[in-house]
Structure formats: structure tokens, C-alpha cells
Amino acid sequence: MPAANDIRKGQVIKFNGEPHLVMETQHRTPGNLRAFVQIKMRNLRYGKALDQRFASTDTIEVMPTEKKSLEFSYADRDSFAFIDPETFEQIELSAETLGDVKHYLTAGGKVDVLFVDEKPLTVELPSTVALKVIESSEGIKGDTASNVQKPAKLETGLTVQVPLFIKEGEIIKVSTADGSYLGRQ
Q1: Which residues in 16-170 belong to E strands, given as ranges?
Q2: At 31, which CATH number?
């Protein structure tokens, strides 16, 4: 097992029996104290971020990881199916595992899935996705004095605020970071 000094950003380590993604590391040697490594990490099961201090000589277990690009196939109640385009192997993930990611999945859409110990743990989306507007009220004529917006329901069930000129059936770009409208497709 590597020492805390050897841990780098992007690795997955086992801490308190749970997999954690290392987001940032800092090696510090304060004055007359022993050197330590400050690691900012995120629990991959629960999403909680934390800072932890390790002595520079502590050994930390690094977990084997693999990232695969998969295509979203279909949703069935609380289960979401993904297909590996190379091997055509199907992988199912629960709605609990996906979290808010499920609001941005469309059939055929590509996502990166992080596997730790051959178990899928997290799904990474592209920064923007194109979604179709299925329900939107009409804008009021003359209500254009400022940046007025209205709610629009998208094909995945997500509701976003869009400008008044967006109509049902249009395809819009949505940010996956905060769910905001970015423009027409």
C-alpha cells in the first residue's frame, strides 16, 4: 500500500471502509512539527465531502478503478439500464445510485461510469445535454421589458426556467451542473 505522500488527485482510496475520491492533496511541513498530508475527498456512496489529515508515513489503500463510456438505454421504475457499446453488456443502476443524474438521461445519451472493484459507483455526465421541451405555457405578449422567464417541463421530467420565446417541441441545451437553460440546440 502506498504512503500518504504518494496519493494523487483522481485516485480512489478506502477510508473508514468506504471508497472516497481524492479531490485535492496538500503536503505540509509546519515549523517544528512532523510532516502531514491534507486530503480533500468525497465519499462515492453518499456524496459527502470531507477533509482528512494523514501523517506522511501512513499507508492508505488505493482501490482499483476503471472508467467506461456507456450509453443510456431505458428506465424501468427505479432501475436504469446502460449498455456498453463495445461488448453490448447491459448494466443496471438504481435511482438511488444515480441521484440527480437521472434527470439528464436520454435514450442513446453517453455517460462515463466509474467502476470501483468492478462495481459501478458514480455516473459522470457531459457538461451540457440537449433535452426536448414537452410542456410550456405561452408567453404573454408585451411582457419583454426585462429577462422574464417561465417554467418548462422537459422530456426527462426536469423543470427548468426558460425565456418566453421557447415553445413546446423545441430542443434546448441544459447545464448538468445546475440545471439551468443555456440556449437552443
Answers
A1: 18-28, 36-43, 49-55, 61-62, 65-76, 79-83, 90-94, 110-116, 119-124, 128-136, 149-154, 159-163
A2: 2.30.30.30
Q: Which of 106, 6, 21, 9 is nearest to 59 (CA)?
A: 6
Query: Is-above-0.70 flag for pTM?
Result: no
Spatial contact of 97 and 117, defined as CB atoms under 8 Å apart: no
- Domains identified in the chain, total number: 3
Distance CA 93, CA 113 (A): 10
Q: Structural domain of residue 44, as residue ranges?
A: 4-62
- Hey, what's the cell of 58? 501512513
Q: Which residues of the chain have pLDDT under 70?
A: 139-146
**Alpha-carbon span 63 to 13, nearest angstrom:** 5
